[in-house]
Amino acid sequence: MRRWDALIAVADAFPREPIIVTLGGTTRELAALRRSPNHLYVLDSMGLPPAIGLGVALGLEGSSLGKTIVLEGDGSLLMGLSTLATIGLARPSNLILLILDNGTYGATGNQPTASSVVDFARMAEACGIAATEVDDVNGLKSALDWARAADRAVLIRARIDTTVEKAPFLLEDPVVLGATFADYIARNR
Questions:
Q1: Contact criterion met (CB below 8 Å) for 95 and 49
Q2: Using CA atoms, how far apart are residues 189 and 184, in angstroms rounded to an integer?
């Protein structure tokens, strides 16, 4: 599955819910595909999107915004792996962590990650997080439907290829990106 196709599936499934977006190609492609104020584009912060998403999810539990979605890469999750334990401890009912696993550190030159020997789903389950794995768009769509209905945090590991779509760099001020997202949350919660 291409990352672009996975991003379309997520944007279609969650058009108004808060989406925390990891750095690099994921940010550029989603912004080019469906730029939206409900997306928080986290620039140059490997490993932080799950922690940010946890805070957003906890702050929005019971709100009309429903689930908080985090789009994370395998390399970035490996840098912030301890967040899985924190998510398990905090037990948010409205958090979906989608790992777009291409087996590389795409933002730094496609060096291989350790994801080929890491079972993210079992690690998540050991922390009390529901988990599943998918490798095609139809499987992802089904998993997103399942995650929407879940009453606890969910991790979905989506295996993607290393295809990168041409998309302009997102070179905006992170303060402005954060303020746009915060304003959206305040107006729609």
A1: no
A2: 8
Report pLDDT for 109. 79
**Which residues are CB-contacts of 139 (< 8 A; sequence separation ≥ 6)?**
none
Q: Which of 137, 135, 155 is nearest to 146 (CA)?
A: 155
| Tokens 């997306």, located at residue | 39
Cα–Cα distance for residue pair 51/168, rounded to 1 Å: 27
CATH, domain range 3-188: 3.40.50.970
DSSP the chain: --HHHHHHHHHHH-SSS-EEE-STHHHHHHHHHH--TTEEE-TT-TT-HHHHHHHHHHHHTTSTT--EEEEEEHHHHHHTTHHHHHHHHH--SSEEEEEEE-SEEGGGT-EE-SGGG--HHHHHHHTT-EEEEE-SHHHHHHHHHHHHH-SS-EEEEEE--------------HHHHHHHHHHHHHHH-
Q: Contact 178/118 with Cβ under 8 angstroms?
A: no
Residues 30-83 have pLDDT tens digits of 999 999 999 999 988 889 999 999 999 999 999 999 999 999 999 999 999 999
Angle at 120 between CA 95 and CA 117, to 5 degrees: 165
Ordered by start, the domain boundaries in the chain are 3-188
Specify the pLDDT at position 137.
98
The residue behind tokens 């001020």 is: 173
- Measured CA to CA, the distance from residue 188 to residue 13 in angstroms comes to 18
